[in-house]
Amino acid sequence: MRNTIKEELVENGYVVIENFLLDEEVEQILKAGQDLCLEAPAESRTVFSTVNCDSNQNREKYFIESGDKVRYFFEEGALDDEGNLKVKPENALNKVGHALHTDHEVFSKYTFSHRVREICWQLGFKRPAIPQSMYIYKNPGVGGEVTPHQDGTFLYTEPVSTIGFWIALHDATVQNGCLQFIKGSHTSGVHRRYIRNPDKSSNELLIYDRPAPIYPASNFTPVPVEKGSCVLIHSQAVHRSDKNKSINPRHAYTFHVIETDGVKYSEENWLQPNSESSFPILYE
Hints:
Structural class: alpha+beta
Radius of gyration: 18 Å
Strand content: 15-25%
Shape: globular
Order of helices and strands: HEHEHEEHHHEEEEEEEEEEEE
Mean pLDDT: 92
Helix content: 10-25%
Low-confidence stretches: 50-59
Number of strands: 16
Largest sheet: 8 strands, mixed
Number of helices: 6
């Protein structure tokens, strides 16, 4: 007898839910993602790096102020020194975030769906909220490596409550950079934090509070999934993905859920709700 979603999450730190979306729903989200590529403004081309933590987004307000906006982040190899595209627009983006769930009709539809509410209910959420969402591109040739990390590094709550919903929009394989996890790593706490710099005189707006831990490559288990699958990710589960070495794209839509009932969202987190409203509630 298969464990429940909650039991499997507690055991492994992640859960694969197959056939979470129908093919036609996947195609609708893919179309929205492709449209975003063509809408990306030329005047604000900002590179997003998952490897170099001393990169521009640490110093630019474009990133830190993206929590309630739709903003565009490019692959490192997509731009020349003057910010001109070196690749086709549809292959240039690393991701778009972080308010697709509130500012885009298609992404809002699936983020606040009955399926998502049902999963959150099964996991025991009482008053869940959505702090962020992202469309992630991992296109052939330019889709870069995502180094080992925990989502709790970026979205920290006390007690721990953050759950990631990672929805595959193409088949995710070892060749094109599927997710890889260290099973059971979610029981070891949050290993480091990515926070707003308390030193207001510094040029670094965002900092890590400690050096990155070293995770042996042999500890990771690849988790290939078919398009339409949803991977639930515990905030402390260590995961990564390789560069896309195939000829096939590996797009994904992802968002995070946090508990707001009796749970404190850290004021140190890089992402903060704006001064006029809190994160949107899924149900209460």
